[in-house]
Design goal:
Structural class of chain B: alpha/beta
Strand order of the largest sheet of chain B: 6-7-8-3-9-10
Order of helices and strands of chain A: HHHHHHHEEHHHHHHHHHHHH
Number of strands of chain B: 22
Strand content of chain B: 15-25%
Radius of gyration of chain B: 24 Å
Number of helices of chain B: 19
CATH class of the largest domain in chain B: Alpha Beta
CATH topology of the largest domain in chain A: ABC transporter involved in vitamin B12 uptake, BtuC
Oligomer: heterodimer
CATH architecture of the largest domain in chain B: 3-Layer(aba) Sandwich
CATH class of the largest domain in chain A: Mainly Alpha
Number of helices of chain A: 19
Largest sheet of chain A: 2 strands, antiparallel
Strand content of chain A: under 5%
Shape of chain A: globular
Distance between the termini of chain B: 54 Å
Bound molecules: adenosine-5'-triphosphate, magnesium ion
Number of domains of chain A: 2
Radius of gyration of chain A: 27 Å
Structural class of chain A: mainly alpha
Largest interface: A-B, 54 and 76 residues
CATH superfamily of the largest domain in chain B: P-loop containing nucleotide triphosphate hydrolases
């Protein structure tokens, strides 16, 4: 076979240095595609939340303006909010590398926090040692809280989604009991379920400004450490191997059970560290229900960061910015703070959509399989069908509201509803006339919207356009694929 | 297909200006080395990959496919090299996936309104499985529509893929290396089926590495090399050796030349081994054998007679219910896979996608699987760190020695052609200086040149005093390589033969479960 050596144009002697390696990573098509998709998801979710704001009567322009201003002018707040999210995001991401879904980061965070608090207020220790010991104990309790579902998964086959979730609630209730009874602070504030304040020696000092403390440093160090662990160590290699192909990993001499248990253990440790760091740097005591869902947000951060440690860092900072800006938006533009949660949720939904489709496809959902095997035209088709269905319900719903005031508008809405339902009925089973029906429905929606703006107010107009315009767009896209019979030119297949 | 070109990321030119003419109703063979671009070309015809340039014309009409959906609608069906079935689902569910819903009786009604109704109604699995059973019977492909895919053998899974295309009323059928996973019997059955298709006027495109097949079945044969069309020949005007020359660009020797073996000490000793499969059935029933250093012991048998479980038991992937396995005197019964590797056993698994490779890992990460935890690949305190430079060096080395066609060792192994993926597995396992090699279907999916190379490598290793246990469904391979042949049937070794004194027919009969008395009889008649 020496004759066709020229096939392999690889220089054996040459070794790549780190820079070419990084360049190659940046050039990787999959990474770029992922980045584009994430960016697109952010834009799309901002667009959708703008629509929702309009419909519910807020000014999206002002909202986004103050969101941006709030974020840009308060970088310290961004980092402050981002710090725990980095750690919980890493926790979820690391478990995911081993193919495990750690839903219970919230509980591990609570356990870590209570551990750190106990060391913080019960023991009197010298200055540097105190926080380090408190964080160590916090992480260790987190490790235990992650290891339990890990061992159950490995040796009893109990699904980790169920066990981590159950242990999560157990942890929240257990700490609640602790701070309501045995560890409760007596005295002036005895009506609050909380522990006494930790000693000053245990506090993580501020790094910069009134918000950012040494927790940020710990979190960034954890990013570097987790990245190193995943990509540069034998353990990381084995975790990834188990996550990608358990049978092949086993064949390669890797013990899948041991690695699964370890992955969930380390994952729990990271979440526990987040809890400890928050207590020592921000709250100084454990109050019942103190976490605003930091563990849950870790899941969304991991999804946004594509389970990559540096991606998690970026994702956490982005969510931190949304929080920081969200406060300003709430105070100045009076948009409810929940809007931030909505934007976050939408982003994650869009980013995760392909993975959800993968999952459904693997579980035999035929529409998901089609979306995976031929994303175009299946995805626009699916979206068109979904909008049509929504349009159908909204059309009938609004018809009842408007009929009494203006029968003509009512009839227009009724027509819009009927055609939307028909459009769904045609598009969903992929009838070639579906796109035409969708075009008709969208035309009626737009007309009803314009007419409605005149006789009934702007909301009807917005509704009509919000449904009609995407319908037209998707239908036009699909017309290229499903050319209805009478539009077909001679010679087309 | 006219002037088809395709370049993948990383400047891999998989197809260069290929023009292929396939007549209606003919069987057209497509040959070429590993990585020549056969699968790529056919995936373009099936609409799975977009082409960079060129035109596809079917029955005089130029077509533009946006996905398999479009290809199916003009009657193109494809059975892929690596099947695309979903293991936990049944045959019926897999076949109707992504299809229009149907319900009993409705699909026979005509008219616009019925067409709409037909499409809105949910799927009736009962009528679908009836139709599947009918299709299966019509074409002589017995199958249980309600069986789960994961319980089916590879041969049956392939039937499901073929039935899937028929269910979608394909009349141009593309088969990507259908025979490389089949036993000789199954190949014969497949050929009967394909002959039926041909008689029914269907057009078939057959990709293969086995040179005898196109000679039996195909009307015309096209050969690709390095993404280019070398030529198209009529069956009558060619021979296997000429085809091989067209593919590889040089003469290929089909029978391996080897010196008689110089067997030494017993390396692998198996005593009265019993193993159960995943369903708890006894599939290895008291196998005893030994393999000496410097010899190749071939296990011949129809797939599904316990070979898989036997190999898994030796390599520590499955627990034996009773019996004993020793390697160089060390008892390895009950050891885990890593311990077995550590006593010097390497293993080429029969299914490269199930066990052999981690598809999303790079080539460099795959070639160290199994030795990643030992120096020089692991460094630092307690060998906890990875030396990635070593990974790359090793990968480049193996890519070079085994002529693996890759653009870069950092790309995921999933972007390699099927045969090149196999080469990655073989290269990894043969490069670790083992005492014992367990090679299960080592040349599955390899082209003639690569097969020749692997065979020569195995013989060179034998001559260096390594013990080799070869499990293969291909009698030719066993007969060419093995120094002793054990025939396995129903979990038992029914005979041990000397390859020089045993005929193909005799082995065939033994593999089919006929005892030696039958053989005597057959001889006497
Ligand atoms: N998705 C991809 N990305 C990059 N390169 C690819 C991709 N798919 C195939 N290739 C490359 O294109 C070339 C042709 O591959 P193809 O699968 O068509 O070969 P083949 O003729 O089917 O070989 P085999 O007989 O081994 O199956 C190979 O070099 C392969 O590495
Ligand atoms: Mg191929």
């Amino acid at each position: 076979m020496t004759e066709n050596v020229e096939v392999t144009n690889i220089d054996i002697e040459k070794d790549d240095d780190t820079i070419t390696r990084i360049l190659r990573k940046l050039n990787d098509r999959k990474l770029r595609k992922q980045a584009m998709w994430t960016f697109g998801s952010i834009v799309l979710s901002l667009f959708v939340s703008a629509l929702i704001m309009v419909i519910s009567g807020y000014d999206p322009g002002a909202a986004f303006y103050y969101l941006a201003v709030g974020a840009i002018t308060q970088p310290d707040r961004i980092l402050f909010y981002a710090t725990p999210l980095i750690l919980t995001g890493l926790s979820v991401a690391l478990a995911f590398k081993c193919g495990l879904f750690n839903i219970g980061a919230e509980g591990q965070l609570y356990m870590g926090a209570i551990g750190a608090t106990i060391i913080g207020y019960m023991f009197s220790l010298p200055i540097l040692i105190h926080p380090i010991l408190a964080l160590l104990v916090g992480s260790l309790i987190g490790v235990i809280w992650g290891l339990i579902p890990g061992l159950l998964k490995a040796y009893r086959g109990a699904h980790e989604v169920v066990t981590t979730m159950m242990l999560s609630y157990t942890a929240i209730l257990f700490t609640q009991w602790l701070v309501t009874y045995p560890l409760k602070e007596q005295g002036e504030y005895a009506w609050i379920s909380q522990t006494p304040r930790i000693f000053d020696t245990a506090i993580l000092p501020n790094l910069y400004g009134p918000y950012v403390h040494w927790g940020l440093f710990i979190a960034i160090a954890a990013v570097v450490a987790v990245d190193f662990l995943i990509n540069r160590t034998v353990l990381g290699y084995e975790l990834r191997a188990v996550g990608q192909n358990e049978a092949a990993a086993e064949y390669g001499g890797i013990n899948p059970k041991r690695n699964m248990a370890l992955a969930l253990g380390i994952s729990g440790g990271l979440a526990g560290l987040a809890g400890g760091e928050e207590i020592l740097g921000t709250y100084y005591r454990f109050t019942d229900q103190w976490s605003p869902g930091l563990g849950w947000d870790g899941i969304t951060v991991a999804v946004l960061g594509n389970n990559n440690p540096w991606g998690v860092l970026a994702g956490a900072i982005f969510f931190g910015a949304l929080r920081a800006g969200g406060n300003t938006m709430h105070q100045v533009a009076h948009v409810p703070i929940e809007m931030v949660g909505l934007i976050q949720g939408l982003i994650v939904l869009f980013v995760a959509a392909p993975k959800i489709i993968d999952w459904l496809a693997d579980n035999g959902q035929s529409f998901a399989i089609r979306m995976k095997s031929e994303p175009f035209p299946a995805i626009p088709e699916f979206l068109l069908a979904a909008i049509s269905l929504i349009g159908g319900f909204l059309g009938f719903g609004y018809m009842f509201v408007q009929m009494a005031f203006d029968p003509i508008l009512g009839i227009a809405l009724l027509l819009a509803g009927i055609t939307s339902f028909l459009s769904f009925a045609f598009v969903y089973p992929r009838n070639e006339n579906g796109t035409l029906m969708a075009l008709l429905a969208s035309g009626i929606w737009i007309a009803a919207g314009i007419f409605g703006t005149v006789v009934a107010g702007i909301q009807v107009g917005i509704l009509g356009l919000a449904l009609g315009i995407p319908m037209v767009l998707f239908a036009i896209v699909l017309l290229r694929v499903h050319r209805p019979p009478f539009l077909m030119r001679r010679g087309d297949a | 297909m006219e002037n088809i070109s395709k370049t993948f990321a990383g400047d891999v030119q998989a197809n260069k200006n290929i023009t292929l003419r396939i007549e209606e109703g003919e069987v057209h063979g497509l040959l070429g080395e590993n990585g020549a671009g056969k699968s790529t070309l056919m995936n373009i015809l099936y609409g799975l990959i977009s082409k960079d340039s060129g035109r596809i014309i079917i029955r005089g009409q130029e077509v533009e496919f946006h996905g398999p959906h479009d290809a199916i609608s003009v009657g193109v069906g494809m059975v892929h090299q690596h099947f695309k079935l979903i293991p936990p689902l049944t045959v019926t569910e897999n076949v109707v996936l992504g299809m229009e819903p149907i319900i009993n009786g409705v699909d026979k009604r005509k008219g616009r309104l019925w067409k709409i109704v037909k499409q809105i109604l949910p799927i009736s699995y009962r009528s679908a499985s009836k139709r599947i059973a009918a299709i299966a019977e019509e074409n002589g492909m017995a199958i249980d529509p309600n069986a789960k895919i994961r319980d089916l053998s590879v041969g049956l899974q392939q039937r499901v893929e073929i039935i899937k295309t028929l269910y979608r009323e394909a009349d141009i059928l593309i088969l990507d290396e259908p025979t490389s996973v089949l036993t000789p019997q199954e190949v014969d059955e497949l050929f009967v089926t394909l002959q039926k298709f041909k008689d029914a006027g269907k057009t078939i495109i057959l990709i293969t590495h086995k040179l005898r097949e196109p000679i039996i079945l195909c009307d015309k044969i096209s050969v690709l090399r390095d993404g280019e069309l070398v030529g198209t020949v009529n069956r009558a005007d060619t021979s296997p050796s000429e085809l091989a020359k067209m593919m590889v660009g040089r003469e290929v020797v089909f029978s391996v030349e080897k010196e008689p073996a110089q067997p030494g000490n017993v390396v692998l000793q198996i005593n009265n081994l019993h193993v159960r499969d995943s369903r708890g059935l006894d599939v290895v029933n008291g196998v005893s054998l030994n393999v000496r250093s410097g010899e190749i012991y071939g296990i011949a048998g129809v797939e599904g007679n316990g070979q898989t479980e036997l190999v898994e038991a030796i390599t520590g992937l499955r627990r034996a219910t009773s019996g004993e396995i020793t390697v160089n005197g060390t008892d390895i019964t009950g050891m885990n896979p890593r311990q077995v590797r550590d006593v010097g056993v390497s293993h080429i698994p029969e299914d490269r996608h199930a066990r052999g490779l981690i598809l999303s890992f790079s080539i460099a990460e795959n070639v160290v699987l199994g030795k990643h935890q030992n120096p020089p690949f692991a460094t630092g305190p307690k060998n906890m760190m990875l030396d990635l430079d070593r990974f790359n060096k090793e990968a480049k080395n193996l890519v070079h020695t085994y002529s693996i066609k890759v653009s870069d060792v950092q790309v995921p192994v999933s972007t390699l052609s099927g045969g090149n993926q196999q080469k990655v597995v073989v290269a990894r396992e043969l490069s670790i200086n083992p005492d014992l090699v367990i090679a299960a279907q080592p040349t599955r999916g390899l082209d003639v040149g690569a097969t020749e190379f692997i065979h020569n490598t195995l013989i060179a290793m034998r001559d260096k005093g390594i013990a080799i246990l070869l499990v293969s469904a291909e009698l030719d391979e066993i007969r060419n390589l093995a120094d002793r042949i054990g025939v396995i049937f129903d979990g038992k070794l029914v005979a041990e033969k000397d390859p020089y004194e045993t005929s193909q027919e005799e082995l065939g009969l033994l593999m089919a479960g006929h005892g030696s008395e039958d053989l005597e009889e057959a001889r006497n008649v």
